[in-house]
Amino acid sequence: GPQGPAGGGGGAPQQKKDEKTQLFEVEVPRGVQPGQPFALLAGGVRVLVTCPTNANPGQRIRFKLPLALTQKPKATNEAAAIKLSYDKDGWQRTIRVSDMKFQWVRVDDKGDIDTRTRFHIEKSAYVRKLEFRPGDDPRIRTGILRLVPASDAVVDSRIKSADNRDLVTYSDIANAQVKAFEEKAQWFQDTCAQLCVEWNEGHMRMNVRRQFLLGDSVDAVMSLSRKDLRKLWRFEFIGEMGIDAGGLAREWFQLVTEEIFDPDMGLWQSSAVNQMCMEINPASEYCCEDHLVYYRFLGRVMGKALFDRQLVAGHMVQHLYKHILGWPVTFADLEMVDEEYFNNLKQLQTMNKNGDDISMLCLDFTTTQEVMGTKSEIELVPGGADMEVNNDNFPEYLEACLKYRMLDRVKPQMNELLLGFFDVIPEPLLTIFDFQELELLMCGLPEIDMADWKEHTEYSGEYDEIGPDHQSCQWFWEIVTEFDQEMKARLLQFVTGTSGVPSRGFGVLQGNDGNIRKFTVHGVQTGVCLYPRAHTCFNRIDLPMYETREECQEKLKLAVTMVATGFDIE
Questions:
Q1: What are the strands, taking DSSP E only, across 209-315?
Q2: Which of 217, 219, 314, 559 has the fewest CB atoms within 10 Å around its CB?
Q3: What segment(s) does the record annotate as region Disordered (predicted)?
Q4: Confidence class of residue 87 from pLDDT cuts 50, 70 and 90?
C-alpha cells in the first residue's frame, strides 16, 4: 500500500525497480482528502490508491505494485480492452493497491473517481455482495446477500490450491481478461482442471432413477461436500443399459435443468420482457415445498456444469448473470426486468426534474406484490408505509425501487443459488468474463451455425473415404439445412445428448473423457439398421446409405422426433 509522503515535485509517476515489485511516486491530486481513495494509471494499469492520512494534495506519495501487474499484455481485441466500461465515463474494475483486490469504481471522462453517495438515475450502480458464513452442516455454507453500492463490493484476485499454494494470481487473471473469448474459455477450463480432484483421490458415482430424476438428483448432490463437487462424476440411470462415456452426463445436466426451469414447477417463470429467458418466481415458496433447497441444488448444478464444460437448459434474465459475476446493475437494467414499471418510474423522474410536486401523488415507500391472485403491500425500506415520497427523498425512493426489483424480492432464492454456485466455482475465476460471455458458456450458442457444423464434422464407416462428397452425406446436409431451428436442435439432442452446442462452436464438441469428439456421420448399410441411430457418448450418428433423398429425409425426421431420451449400450 501507499508508504507515505515523499519529496515534492510534479508530473507523471516516477518508477524505481526491484526484483518483484515496482516503486511508483505520484502527486496527490487536488481535491483528494487524507484517507480518500483516488485512481491513477501506473504502468498502463488503472489502480486504486488511498491517500495516506499524513499527506495532502500536491505532496508526492510512494506505493509498490507487483511487476507482473505492470507488465499486463495488450488486449487481443478492442472489445476486450473496453468491455468493463459501460459508457465513456462508466464503471470499471480496478485493482486496489492496499490488498490487491478487485473493486468497481466509476471514472468520469477526465479520469476522476466519482465519489457520490446519493442515488443518481444514470450514474449509480449496485453490486451483490455475498458474505459467506459457516453453516451448522460443514457441507452447507450459509451467507448474507445484499445489494451494495458498486464501489463497496470487492473480490479477491488470487485462488489457493488445496495445499494452500497460489494457483491463480492477479497477473494470471489480468492476462486472461484481455484474451479473445475462445482463449478465455480455454484458460478457465485449464484452471478448473487444476482444481479438479484426481480420479485416484476419489470420484462420485451418481445413480438415479429416470422416473424420479429430480428427487434422486437433489438427494445425491445435496449430500456432497464442496470437495466432492470438484471430483469426477459418472452417471448411471438405474435399470438401463448404458456406459457413461459422456452422453449420460450430458443428458443428466440437460434433463435436470429442463425440469427445474420448467415454469410448471413454480421455481422459475418466463420473463415478461423476453419469453426466451427465465426469471426467479418471487412466489416460489407457495409453489414448491423446500423451494430453497432446489435453488441451492441448481446453483451447484450450474457451477458443476461450468466446471465440467457441460451445458444447462435455461437461459436466465440478464441481470442474474450479472449477479453471478458480481457485475454492477443500474437503473437501465430495470427495463429488462419490468418495462412498464421502468417507464412509470421514468415518468416520475421527469416530473421531479420539472419541479412538479411529487407528494401530490400520495406515494409511500411501498410496492404491491401479487401472489396467487392475492395482492399485498411490501415495504421497500423499514417503516416504508409511513414514509411519504416527496421531491427531497425521491432519489432514495428510486434507489429502494431498484434494489427491490433487482434483488430484494427474490433475495432468499438468489442467496441459495449463489451459495450453490460458489460451492464449485471460485469467484475470482469469473472476473475474466462479462455477463454475455457467461451466458454463452452456460447455455451454448443460441443459434446454430451450419457452416461451422459442417466444417467440424467427421466421417467414418462407409463414408470414410469420400466424406461429405458421398451422395448420402450430401442429402443429409441438404435436409438438415432445410430443418427449422427446433429440428436442428432436436437432431443435436438426438446425436450429442443436448440441444445446445459448446459456446466456442462445434470444433470443441467433447466426449466424456474431456477430449474433442467431433460430430460424426458414420455410414452403414441399410441392412444394419433401418433408421439413423445415435451414439451420444461419441457424438456419432449412424446414417444408412438410403437409395433416395426422400427416404433419407423421412427416416431422419422420424428418428429425430420419435426417439425417447434414453441410451442403448453400443
A1: 233-237, 268-270, 278-280
A2: 219
A3: 1-20
A4: very low
Q: How far apart are the first and last CA of the chain?
A: 62
Active-site annotation, residues: 537
Query: Rounded to 10 degrees, what is the CA torsion of 137, 139, 141, 142?
Result: -40
Contact 248, 221 (CB under 8 A): no
Tell me whether residue 75 is exposed, middle or buried, using C-beta atoms within 10 angstroms of its C-beta: 0 to 12, 13 to 18, 19 or more: middle
189 touches 383 (CB < 8 A): no
Contact 233, 251 (CB under 8 A): no
SS3 201: helix
Q: What rounded mean pLDDT belongs to the chain?
A: 83
Q: Distance between alpha carbon 125 and the CA centroid of its chain, in Å?
A: 19
User: What phi, psi does 267 have (nearest 5°)?
Assistant: -85, -35
Domains (ranges, CATH) in the chain?
1-115 (no CATH), 119-155+196-212+256-443 (3.90.1750), 450-562 (3.30.2410.10)
178-192, 205-219, 493-507: least confidently modelled range: 493-507
Q: What is the CA radius of gyration of the chain?
A: 27
pLDDT score, position 500? 58
Going by C-alpha positions, the residue among 361, 329, 348, 357 that lies closest to residue 396 is: 348
Residue 5 has pLDDT above 70, yes or no: no
498 vs 217, 256, 447, 495, 510, CA distance in Å? 18, 12, 14, 8, 12
Cell triple for 560: 429425430
Q: Given this model, what pLDDT does residue 385 score? A: 94
Give the contacts of 311 (CB within 8 A, at least 6 positions apart). Answer: 250, 253, 254, 305, 442, 443, 444, 498, 500, 502
In the prediction, which pLDDT does 99 show?
A: 82
Site of grid cell 446477500: 145
Q: Are strands 101-106 and 91-96 parallel, antiparallel or unpaired?
A: antiparallel
Share of the chain above pLDDT 90, in %: 44
SS3 272: coil
- C-alpha span between 369 and 283 (Å, rounded): 10
Phi, psi for 383 (deg, rounded to 5): 75, 15
Q: What is the pTM of this model?
A: 0.71
